[in-house]
Amino acid sequence: MKTIVDFLKIAEKLECEYRLTQMSDGMNQSVAAHSWNMAMMAIAMEPYFVRKYDMNRVLKMCLLHDLPEAIAHDIPLHEQNDMCRMEKRSQEACAINKIMGLLNNQSVSECFDEYEKRVSFESRLVKALDRLDTTVQHLCAKDLTYVGKYNDNFYWKLFFSDEFAAHFDFEPILRKVFDEIKQQVSNRLKDELDIDSNSFIGVKNENS
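That's the 5'-deoxynucleotidase sequence above. Prediction below.
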């Protein structure tokens, strides 16, 4: 019983780990909330998927994919470089080993491995939902000015790039939802900040 309780104490920390993205109340989004949102998106879009997915695996991956950040912490994309990403992978591998040392559940280890390899359609779907949740937060954020504060509009250039949109093309409903979000975000930028989103279109972003 102690190992299960120790695992739950680690999992709770994901509720205290905050991402750069902001929510509709102006607060930063927790990593746990991000994982929950992904599961909600998977449930909402399931009837429209053209492929048949193992939804049990999808939902489990949604909830588990960022659990190592309860130990290794989240690093905003604009702060990452090759060395940082290598160190992050190393820290997350150690975190996974610690988590697996507490659980007698091989399927959890398989979920981590499947998500990292991104070979299965389920893992590709979960990664797409990971990206899509960020765009939902761009839409729902109380104040959009924070998104443009980093590295000469890094996140807007990423969001409006063709390279980013292409991540959703393998499942038509994902692309349709993304396109609708992008249009609504574009309208918000114009109405609230008098920013024409066309100024970001076509700008290359190496992290997209």
